[in-house]
Specification:
Blueprint lengths: L10 E5 L4 H12 L3 E6 L2 H15 L3 E5 L5 H15 L4 E4 L15 H28 L5 E6 L12 H21 L4 E9 L1 E2 L10 E2 L5 E2 L4 E2 L1 H12 L8 E5 L10
Parallel strand pairs: 1-2, 1-4, 2-3, 4-5, 5-6, 6-11, 7-10
Antiparallel strand pairs: 8-9
Helix pairs in contact: 1-2, 1-6, 3-4, 4-5
Length: 257
């Protein structure tokens, strides 16, 4: 089976699939033959992305608005997938937000709650619904891939809420991989270092380093991330990439500190 047809006849959901890394992942999955549902909070952004992606790949992409931090919204998202497609083969938990890079003591409780809701609660709620569907569908099973970010391994200055949620995602990935074993549900995590998106555009101008200096950091095209996710998803369910780090070779992660 080639990469181009590894997803033929399969259904995928990419949260935060209308922009940035999520859009790149969606494009790669469409190229591999998946039918892809993209979710996000902004209808206009989702619809525009769906039109562009379908035109580029001639694949089938459906946009459904959802707030991953809201249990009712997530339940409605998965009910819509079940109603239209009858199953889900791949969930990519990609949706996430960051907060201003300011000292921890200046962060508000609203800042904290917003990032925990999007980056951690959202992953849990979507995973919970995916597990229910994947256990019940026939054939049984599926795959879940979580976007951990390199912040799941090493923090940047002034990133406590983001880093805390991404470390927690690693624990959730491992728990899901363990709990999914008896039901042919595989779960892995991709930790990404500086993919080129609107969110990382400031990297070239310079970002604060652990030693207090500001330095420019290299980035890599976002489609590399999409290709990596397709590779993880193309494996049979008897095999799993538990963790993968994909990063710009010359970024300063290795040796930090």
């Amino acid at each position: 089976m080639t990469k181009e047809d590894s997803g033929r006849g399969k259904i995928a959901l990419v949260t935060g699939g209308g922009t940035g890394v999520g859009k790149a992942i969606t494009s790669a999955l469409l190229g591999a033959g998946y039918t892809v549902v993209i979710s996000g909070r902004r209808r206009d952004v989702l619809d525009e992305a769906a039109r562009a992606l379908a035109g580029e790949t001639r694949g089938t992409v459906k946009a459904i608005t959802a707030d991953v931090s809201d249990p009712d919204s997530v339940a409605a998202l998965f009910e819509a997938i079940k109603s239209e497609f009858g199953r889900l083969d791949l969930l990519v938990n990609n949706a996430g937000v960051n907060v201003p890079n300011i000292p921890m003591e200046e962060l508000t409780f609203d800042h904290w709650n917003a990032i925990v809701g999007a980056n951690l609660t959202g992953v849990f709620l979507c995973t919970q619904q995916a597990m229910k569907l994947m256990k019940a569908q026939s054939p049984r099973g599926g795959r879940i891939i979580n976007n951990g970010s390199i912040s799941a391994q090493t923090p940047r200055p002034y990133s406590a809420p983001y880093t805390a949620t991404k470390h927690a995602v690693t624990g959730l990935t491992k728990s899901t991989a363990l709990d999914g074993r008896p039901f042919d549900i595989a779960c892995g995590q991709i930790d990404i270092g500086n993919a080129t998106t609107e969110m990382t555009s400031k990297m070239a101008a310079g970002v604060l380093q652990a030693n207090g200096e500001t330095a420019s950091e290299p980035t890599i095209p976002a489609h590399y991330i999409g290709d990596a996710v397709v590779h993880m998803a193309s494996l049979p369910l008897e095999a799993n990439v538990l963790t993968m780090t994909i990063m710009a070779t010359k970024m300063p992660l290795v040796g930090r500190g």
